Structures are given as structure tokens and as C-alpha cells.
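Below is how a single chain appears once it has passed through the pipeline. First comes the sequence as given, then the structure the pipeline wrote out for it. We keep one example in the README because the format questions we get most often are answered faster by looking than by reading.
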Amino acid sequence: MSLPETEKLDVLVVAPHPDDAELGLAGTILSMVAEGRRVGILELTNGEPTPLGTPEIRKRETDEATRRLGIAWRGNLGLTNRSLEATLENRRKLAEVFRKIKPTLIFAPYWEDAHPDHTAATKLVEEARFWAKMGKSDMAGTPFHPARILYYFSIHLRIVERPSLLMDISQFTRQKREVLEAYRSQIVDNQPAGVPGVIDRVLDRNRYWGIMAGVESAEPFASREPVGLKSLRDMTL
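Resulting structure:
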């Protein structure tokens, strides 16, 4: 895995599998890119095997989604799909990424989920964030502590999200659909006829949260720590 050599990233999205980041926050990623922020995505696994995919298909789809997002960097940590664990070895690997690219903001999967890879990823991100700041260590990179983790929803539970904040993505809903459509093998070609598919359900939820925020469409995020505002003008309602 090659890392950015010359510039750190402002934001890093950590995803258990390809497409998790886009399902949870493609609109927010597009918004941050439009603002000029350097955004990266790090998958922990390649997401294979799946019933309709192959490593080659998944890579082509991920490359196309990356192009549509316009992000600065994307990498894969090369851990094992379906067997992801927050081991000491994996914690070290992820902490070294944090120390090298120094993202101020990290997005991680929401901590409650039915998918073991997703909950393992959350634990791994939190522990690697702590490890990344340690001095007197033989880990690659220099000590660094990412300022904040926000948690996005790409979950396998039939629950209503419990967000701490909502991000207005009204200007980016069409582009979000286009990004998601890059993952044809997983969320386009295999959808049953006569019922809303994955993409429509995701965008419907975004519209629901938009109503809650007083905008057309919004993505929900949770935080374990308080979120500060410089001005109440940042609130839409």
C-alpha cells in the first residue's frame, strides 16, 4: 500500500470493505472535496469473497467510485475479509497509517452493527488512534493524535440511526447516486425487481434526515465526544 508522500490528508475515512464509505457518507465526501479539503479512504479489506464479486471486479468498481468522488488518495490495508479482528498487529498497521498521513478528522463505522467486520473496524480505529500518539515506539511515522472521530452509518441492523449531527448534502445527492452506481456487482445488478434497491433506500434515509435538519437531504453522524460550534449560525434549525 502506497501512502501520500508529500502532503498529509485533512480527512481519512476508514471502511471495513469497498463501498461502505460511499454508502455512509459519499455526499459529505463530495462536499469536503468541493471545499478543497484533502480527503482519503482506507479500506481494511478488499471485501471478497462475495456471491457476485471477484477481487478484480471489486477493484475496478472501487477505482471508478474513487474517480467519481475526486478524492486525494485511496488505500487498502490488506486485512482479511470476514475475519477482521482488532488484534495488536492490525492496530499497529493502522496506527502507522495515522502517524504517516496525519488526518485531523477520522470517519469510522458506527459502533453498533450486526456485521462483525464493522464492529471490529470501529474498535480497531479507536485503539489505533490512541496508539498513534505514543512516543518511544518503533512504529513507523512520528507521534500524532487525530483530533476527532465521527461515526458514519453503513449498518446491517434494521434500526433508526441515532445521530449527533446531520450534514446537509442537498447539492450532492445526484452525484452520490452516481458514485454508488459504480458498485454494480454489489448494489445494482443484484437488486430484486419491484422493491426499492439499496441505493434508493440509502437516499430515502438521507431525505428523511434532511427533513429533520430542515434541508432537502442529509447524512447522519454520531460522536462519542462533544461537538463544538464556533457560531450557532452553523445550525440549520
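The chain has a mean pLDDT of 94.

See the next section for the split statistics.
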